[in-house]
Amino acid sequence: MGLCDNSQWWWPRRGFWPCAVNPNDSVLDAFEALFSEQGWTETDDRTLETGFAKIALYAKNDVITHAARQLPTGEWTSKLGKHVDLAHKIDELDGPMYGAVFRIYKKSI
Question: Does some domain include residue 9?
Answer without folding.
Answer: no
